[in-house]
Design brief:
single chain, 532 residues, mainly alpha
């Protein structure tokens, strides 16, 4: 009975993983029309069905164990104990986030919105609970399956390739039928995800998986893995949201640190980074004709320049040199960890320097001019396409929400309800947006969570991601798969500083963390068995 139960739960976990990671991003009910609603209904339906199946299986198993109490647990009992074991820090933060989401809903004055979320976004209480439920289902029952990994890889590659083709003027799915090239929708809706901000949010979680496969792959598999990683990199460059470039930098940073213990890994890192100048140089060389958002056309000349050829040449020479050194000496010059420490110190110094420069530019005009007088160095209402004004208003509105509002928030996904009804939000959406568009969130997920679910909910949410990253970092040397999880978490965190959660990207990152958590538990269990 217990073996059948375990097999059933593993099947449920694998099917759920496939539907959310592979099917949901590709799912379109009627092209781009009401696409957010279609995605949410798909996510909600799949989550309800599979979480109920999981809980039903758990209930049947519980009844069976109660009726056979007193019998020796046997092999299946040990498997069950290993499946749940002790709660990790990430587990605890996930539980706290679910609890505080419920409390935020109960204390909200906008329960009609807080339950399902603001129209078109649907990040309300139900979605928050589905995120946590999906995390525990997969983190406890998912098993490594090449078929599942392969299907997810194909899906991610397809979504990236479609977006790239759309930017080049091709429409394989016919989703732009009836649209002229100058229309807002033609320039700002991509692939099967839609709005470029939604698409960017998806890419920053999905592309790390493609880059990891290229970095860690072996033999002939590196050829398709490299092609997919190239497409994913190109998709991020062309999608249209500047936060995607920041997220790409976060991916590279994590991968660099993960590669500084072995010459072979560092060589692979150079090969991954080489994909960016390779695409940009080829785009300049071929004079690639693209359909881009209007605000992106202004900087396209700085994106595609012959200077990328120099960087491409330098990286290629570095890769060849490393390969020759590794092949001739067979020595691992990175084994002592000095390079890792040096790069860590340099990264810390650069980070502190960047903070000091940014702070100095706010205080002194002379400092600002000394560093070029760039607009992004001076925080004001127009900073970040109007984010400066939105963040300032959101921060002030948060403190005016009262003790209960500060502690529990105004309700899951109730940002727009609170600010437009209570705060008389007077900010107008940028003219580059669709007519009649409003700010449904703070365009900073961490600040948005603070407003919606208060200090408790935001702390639990942030703690979930930080604890997951730390947990994966500690186990990265024993399990290289942790690198993919760290890249996804870091890129998501960087992107969401300028963006928002939604029902494609956020479930994706929760499940990536769940898969890595399952790997952590498996690794820990094997260590316990080895040590007695």
């Amino acid at each position: 009975m217990e073996m059948k139960y375990a097999g059933f739960q593993k099947t449920v976990a694998s099917a759920y993983l496939l539907l959310i990671l592979a099917a949901l991003p590709l799912y379109m009910r009627d092209g781009f029309y009401m696409l957010a609603d279609a995605k949410y209904l798909f996510f909600r339906s799949v989550s309800v069905i599979f979480l109920l199946l999981w809980l039903s299986g758990a209930a049947v198993s519980g009844i069976y164990r109660w009726r056979h109490r007193g019998h020796p647990p046997g092999e299946d009992g040990r498997e069950r104990s290993g499946t749940w074991g002790r709660l990790s820090g990430t587990d605890c933060f996930a539980i706290c986030f679910a609890l505080f989401s419920v409390l935020s809903y109960l204390f909200s004055a906008y329960k009609d919105t807080a339950l399902t979320g603001f129209s078109g976004w649907y990040m309300g209480l139900l979605t928050q609970l589905f995120l946590v439920g999906g995390y525990f289902l997969v983190s406890r029952w998912h098993e490594r399956e090449k078929m599942v990994s392969g299907i997810v890889w194909i899906s991610v590659t397809a979504v990236c390739l479609l977006g790239l083709l759309n930017r080049m003027g091709y429409d394989p799915l016919g989703t732009y039928e009836g649209m002229d090239w100058w229309e807002w929708n033609r320039r700002n809706l991509l692939s099967t995800v839609g709005n470029i901000n939604w698409y960017c949010g998806y890419l920053v979680v999905a592309v790390p998986l493609l880059l990891y496969c290229f970095w860690a792959g072996e033999g002939w598999k590196r050829i398709p893995a490299g092609a997919a990683a190239f497409v994913g990199t190109a998709a991020i460059v062309l999608q249209g949201s500047a936060s995607g470039v920041v997220a790409l930098g976060a991916m590279y940073a994590v991968l660099l640190f993960a590669s500084l213990k072995e010459m072979r890994s560092l060589l692979r890192f150079l090969e991954v980074v080489l994909l960016l100048p390779l695409f940009s140089f080829l785009a300049w060389l071929t004079r690639m004709d693209l359909i881009l958002p209007y605000d992106m056309e202004e900087i396209v000349e700085s994106i595609f320049t012959p200077w990328w050829g120099i960087l491409l040449w330098l990286l290629a020479v570095g890769a060849v040199a490393l390969r020759l050194i590794e092949g001739r000496t067979g020595r691992n010059y990175l084994e002592d960890g000095r390079m890792l420490k040096a790069v860590s110190v340099l990264a810390a110094a650069l980070g502190i320097g960047a903070v000091l420069v940014f702070a100095g530019c706010q205080i002194s005009d002379e400092v600002w001019r000394f560093f070029g007088g760039f607009s992004f160095l001076r925080f004001d209402s127009g900073w970040g396409s109007g984010r400066g004004a939105v963040w300032t208003a959101a921060w002030k509105g948060f403190w005016r929400s009262g003790f209960t509002g500060c502690l529990y928030g105004v309700g899951p996904d109730c940002f727009a309800r609170y600010f437009y009804e209570q705060e008389s939000f007077a900010l107008q959406a940028p003219i580059s947006w669709e007519e009649g568009a409003i700010y449904a969130n703070a365009h900073n997920e961490w600040l948005n969570m603070l407003v919606n679910q208060g200090i408790l909910g935001a702390a639990a949410y942030l703690g979930f991601f930080l604890s997951a990253f730390a947990r994966f970092w500690k186990r990265r040397e024993g399990n290289p798969r942790m690198t993919a999880g760290m890249m996804a978490v870091a890129a998501y965190g960087a992107n969401q500083f300028f963006s928002f959660g939604q029902v494609v990207a956020t479930p994706f990152v929760f499940l990536v963390i769940a898969v890595c958590e399952r790997e952590c538990r498996r690794t820990d269990r094997e260590k316990e068995r080895l040590h007695g």
